[in-house]
Design goal:
Glycerol-3-phosphate (1)-acyltransferase; globular; alpha/beta
């Protein structure tokens, strides 16, 4: 049995101080760039996310490539708020996030500066959500969506909700492509993660955000594997549900390859 790591309060305090300095510095610079109408709104956020990963000791390994010169909808499994800085440093795109994220301390403001689309988790609002996403995709903005609708324990993929997949049912040369993405938390302090170790990073229970973040910041390092699966066309599927099921299978298969001793398909 591998020894459980003990988060260091000293390390956590130092890293959080660095995180705050880094965040406030780059947020200020992003505001200036937006005021001067700097065209590339994602250039600085990608640098920010990569810096956050370095500060928190998150080592990111990427396999696969995104499709160039196409508008893309990235579909990923969701483990933690850490997925934002992990994927944000790898993928050029704006996140589609639940509305309450906009009110999170510091992170909400940073999300707004990255052109995040905030949506209410209410079925009656689906048409409005689709309109927001369609407008973004029509202006060649890539989007990053977590279709599970919540975060999981990192060892299983929850069912994908299909409603928002409707935005990629269009046909034509300029129709957006869909890239399924697997996010796998594999090692902590160089030790292969079991569920107990993965729970240090997964945020799917009632642990307060501040408590969880302090614990993460106190751990030495983690390795996260990102698998970029081949792009697909939404119009190649009979329905959005079939597309959602295909993406879920791709993501779960990738997780099974990286975590072979576990059951990523679910309980």
């Amino acid at each position: 049995m591998s020894q459980q790591p003990t988060p260091s309060a000293l390390r956590a305090s130092f890293r959080i101080l660095l995180f705050l300095i880094w965040s406030l510095s780059l947020a200020s610079l992003q505001v200036i760039l937006l005021l001067f109408k700097f065209k590339d709104k994602l250039w600085l956020p990608m640098i920010f996310h990569r810096g956050c990963c370095r500060i928190l000791g998150l080592n990111i390994k990427v396999s696969g490539e995104t499709t160039p010169n196409k508008t893309l909808l990235f579909i990923a499994n969701h483990v933690s708020y850490l997925d934002i800085i992990i994927l944000g440093g790898v993928l050029r795109g704006s996140f589609v996030a639940k509305a309450e994220v906009a009110n999170w301390f510091l992170l909400g403001g940073l999300a707004k500066l990255q052109d995040t689309l905030f949506i209410e988790r209410v079925s009656l609002q689906v048409k409005n959500h689709l309109s927001l996403m369609e407008n973004a995709l029509n202006t060649q903005r890539n989007l990053i969506l977590f279709p599970e609708g919540t975060s999981g324990n990192g060892s299983h993929v929850l069912p994908f909700k299909s409603a928002l997949f409707r935005v990629v049912e269009t046909e034509g040369e300029n129709a957006p492509l869909v890239h399924p993405i697997t996010v796998a938390y594999t090692h902590c302090n160089g030790i292969e993660m079991n569920q107990a170790l993965r729970d240090y990073y997964a945020w799917y229970d009632d642990t307060p955000l501040t408590t969880h973040f302090f614990r993460v910041a106190g751990l030495r390092s983690a390795t996260i594997q990102i698998i970029i699966h081949p792009a697909i066309k939404g119009s190649d599927f009979a329905s959005r549900k079939a597309l959602a099921e295909h993406c879920q299978t791709q993501v779960a298969t990738g997780l099974a390859q990286v975590l072979p001793s576990q059951n990523p398909e679910g309980v």
